[in-house]
Amino acid sequence: MKIKFGLGRNCINPEVPISLAGYFNKRMWNKVLDDLEVRAVVLKSGGEYAAIIQFDLLCINMKLYKAVEKELRRADIKNISIKNLLICATHTHTAPDVNNDPNSEVFVKYAAKKAIEALEDAAEELTPGELLGGMAQDHRFLFNRRYWMKNGVVVTNPGKLNPDILRPEGEIDPQIPMLAIKTDAGLALLITSIVNHTDTIGGCGVSADWPGFMRLALEPEMAPGAMVLPLIGASGNINHFDVSTDMDQTCYAEPERIGKGYAESIRKVWNDLAPVEGKGLSYHSRKVKGKLREMDPVEIAEAEAIMAKYPDIDVTSAESVKDLTSEDLAKGTPFAVKYFANALLQLAARTEKPEFLLSCIKFGSSAVIASLPSEPFVEIGLTLRRSIFNDKLCLVTSHGNYNGGKGFGGGYIPNSWNYGRGGYEATPRSSGYSIHTADMLLANWRKLAEKK
Questions:
Q1: Same domain? 32 vs 78
Q2: What is the phi/psi pair of residue 228, to 5°?
Q3: pLDDT tens, 75-89?
Q4: Residue 438 C-beta-side C-alpha neighbours within 13 Å
Q5: Partners of 28 in the beta sheet?
Q6: Rounded CA gap, 310 and 328, in Å?
Q7: 172 and 307: one domain?
């Protein structure tokens, strides 16, 4: 398939004091380990245009989405608007918090401006090339992080070498679908979809995590000025922790190990990428009205009782949650129990409902990039790839567009059967959406997939 493309990128390292995202506690950044980027791709085929903006950030909330839209209207880039633009994030946990930090407004405006500058660069002059597709595979770095325990409940991140672990609750997805554009100079663009969490470092240093190391390993071996776009697949219940070992997997050496490992697996097959069949591309989207998490009166009463049981434990201040970890949640410490009870009661008082934007770029008759909001579990991505787009090479990107609309900074989207088993992803604090959200999103994807 013949296609024209343009690329742009900018550094978005923070320039103001701001906390890093992705943890319960506040972590003010104090150094740059490696650069954060915003990357932009403009695509044209068959007279139609589409674009992708990807941030090295935890999520795309409505605030950031609207800031990008505002900057895009101001720039007035020919043939590109919010109606044919897919915005996504790599979900790195060592990037600025765009949700709750007091300086998030400043950073969001800065990041949106840098994004549109990159998009302008990408749209300035399009280069002809050939669209290729294929599949890599790597099972070494991903594990389902929810485990059935001997006591009959599911625990997230139960700890390494825990003797009470029985088995993982769900699947993994080691396949790496890829799209690439080749020119006379070689591979100029490589888009991958990898299912794994980007939370390997901890601490207060800014980093793009393993996707950054993967890009740095592959781009020098591609055409001059080439770009790797590392889409993050449905990985809400997937991470890199191997509980069968006691190796240190929260350190700066870990993203390098994983990123270079993925690069190695991709490099093995990129010479086997084959032309994508068909002509032209098309962009499709569908807005979906969601529902708030269902609240059982018994749940609310239990949460109120917990709040009353521990009156002297403060769970609302930044200082109080500074040491809260997933291990505390697994152990069920009084602080963790009250923290989640408080979150449940806050959610029960909410009235605004979530909203999602599903979007896809179809290439000819045999390939598609499809978005999912927030942090969907791996089985949702597998259903999208294997059942809904089973006749196409399908690259899934999570954290696509605005997560859940106004007031929602993200949240997990488990399968309906994950609820009631345990694990913090299914708690009201971590998922404010209806327990039927996964089924609702997939039902809407079936309708959207039918569009030509």
A1: yes
A2: -105, 130
A3: 999 999 999 999 999
A4: 24
A5: 19
A6: 16
A7: no
